[in-house]
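Long-time lurker, first post.

We've been arguing in lab meeting about whether adenosine-5'-triphosphate would sit comfortably in this protein at all. Half the group thinks yes, half thinks no, and nobody has a model to point at. So I'm putting the question to the forum: if I give you the sequence and the SMILES, can you give me back a predicted structure of the complex? Inputs are below. Any interpretation is welcome too.
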Amino acid sequence: MKPIQSGIGDREWYQNLFTLEQTIAEITPLHFSAPLAPPIAAAKENRSVDLAIVWQTLTQLRSRLDVLLIEALGGLGSPVTDELTVADLAGEWRLPTVLVVPVKLGSLGQVVANVALARQARVDLKGIVLNCTQPLSDEEIADLTPKDLIQSLTNIPVLGCLPYIDNFSDFDKLVQIASNLDLETLK
Ligand SMILES: Nc1ncnc2c1ncn2[C@@H]1O[C@H](COP(=O)(O)OP(=O)(O)OP(=O)(O)O)[C@@H](O)[C@H]1O
Ligand SMILES: C[C@H](N)[C@@H](CCCCCC(=O)O)NC(=O)O
Ligand SMILES: [Mg+2]
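Top reply:
Settle the argument with this. Predicted structure of the protein with adenosine-5'-triphosphate, as tokens:
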């Protein structure tokens, strides 16, 4: 699921990449046109952010699927409503969570701040995945986001590093990349 989406993006990606039995309304029960934070995008359409429909759809899907992977939006501190952040929802809805961190200078500060926020909101943080959103060497990745330092600072396991992907339509490559992540701990 991409339960709340603003603008064009993830739900369209999923439909192109995967064969899913869910309808688009099940993949994304709440969609807003403006590519902005949900409360702001909703206000532009004179709508509110109806979390009840998100919870209902999530509950239905969870009961009929073996695995339900949910992509949030923005970061843990991004607002979902005027009162609630992504971290608040993940905590209150008890969703086992993986933090995805783009590899760049500043990532260490971001990861420490986000893990602190996750703890404050009682998020069940299972692991951290590093994401190389630009082509970098192994040495550059290790210098910017050293796994051992992140684990020592946060006490959260680093499950792996997604490489830079230049072609998202190479499905076999995506499968091979996913198989390198240590996802067994999420079960
Ligand atoms: N490993 C990668 N290699 C190359 N491009 C990437 C990689 N990860 C992300 N991108 C690019 O960044 C875009 C947004 O990625 P992603 O959906 O993961 O962002 P996000 O942080 O989840 O933001 P959102 O809140 O919009 O979901 C992707 O569609 C892709 O174009
Ligand atoms: C438009 C973006 N791509 C994203 C919304 C990100 C909101 C971030 C708000 C913030 O933290 O300032 N929407 C989405 O993932 O559907
Ligand atoms: Mg996304």
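For your lab meeting: DSSP finds nine helices and five strands in the chain. The chain has a mean pLDDT of 95. Whichever side wins, do check it experimentally.
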